[in-house]
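Exercise 7b. Backbone tokens:
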């Protein structure tokens, strides 16, 4: 599906070289990490904020932020996209995936990854609101020139 990114991804990077979304992705269990990376590569880089138009992969929020949602396990993505997912060697039960990444699309089409969370690990609305508030603060800092982008 991927023909090269029309919407390059950039990761919010604060003054202390902290990249919260990159750190979050690294901490995810393998199969969830594969799910979010495959979804970003196949959909977010291809459509940018337009992933929200059909609602399956996200929704537009206010203040220039949109939520990119990942609800498929890596085997489902592999079946849809034809991309390889390394098997574990054992029968793998279906994995319930519910990952959200809060993003901002810049005028040049670059999608900035601001904050993220695992809805299965934190299903309460408090966690959602907390990560969304973090995304808003980070976007404000970025737009004010007090943060930079990492790749």
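Sequence design result:
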């Amino acid at each position: 599906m991927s023909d090269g990114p029309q919407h390059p991804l950039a990761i919010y990077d604060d003054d202390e070289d902290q990249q919260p979304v990159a750190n979050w992705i690294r901490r995810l269990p393998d199969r969830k990490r594969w799910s979010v990376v495959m979804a970003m590569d196949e959909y977010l880089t291809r459509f940018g904020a337009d992933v929200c138009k059909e609602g399956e992969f996200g929704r537009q929020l206010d203040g220039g932020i949109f939520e990119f949602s990942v609800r498929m396990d890596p085997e489902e993505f592999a079946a849809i996209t034809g991309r390889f997912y390394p098997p574990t060697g054992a029968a793998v039960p279906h994995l319930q995936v519910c990952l959200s990444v809060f993003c901002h699309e810049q005028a040049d089409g670059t999608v900035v990854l601001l904050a993220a969370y695992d809805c299965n690990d934190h299903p309460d609305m408090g966690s959602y609101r907390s990560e969304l508030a973090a995304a808003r603060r980070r976007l404000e800092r970025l737009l004010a020139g007090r943060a930079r982008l990492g790749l």
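Instructor comment: Residues 9-85+93-150 form one domain. Helices lie at 20-27, 30-47, 74-81, 125-143.
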